[in-house]
Amino acid sequence: MNLANKITIARIFLVPVILFFLLVRFDLGSLAISDMNISYAQIIAVLIFIIAASTDGLDGYIARKNQLVTNLGKLLDPLADKLLVASVLIALVEMDKLSALVAIVIISREFAVTGLRQIALLEGKVVAASQWGKWKTATQITMIIVILLNNFPFELIHLPFDLIISWVAAIITLYSGIDYFVKNKSLIPVE
User: What's the predicted TM-score (pTM) here?
Assistant: First the structure.
């Protein structure tokens, strides 16, 4: 168990902690900013989410830099990413802060691309991350943070950035999924 894998496992263990602060009903109070309130539970959840999301690049960097890339890491890293994002998206739908359609598009794409990657592995090939995949991740993380902060600071100027970034994330996510399949169509059995 190397350092990179420990960081990845820590990200997985942070998921239920985030969900606890989002879904368990208890009152820690709230932070009032102008006409808006953000519960301290949501603030704690967003801080833990930011820490967890930032470990994604860190574990990969450590693994590559120190030549610690393992099969366990190759399995756990994408799993941890998907658990983190999908769990928070589902919690946001439960909290009535995100359209279920956006969550379905994002989660469905993750399943589809994971399936494509599995097919590639069976063929002895690797489906590398694309630039669209990186944009997808960035917009999803931005979307989650903005929604968890109740659209702060954009709410102060009455800009529905949370709604805008949700649909931008869904569109980029969908496009990146299509891009993966188009670029790797030779992997798809057409029998």
Answer: 0.89
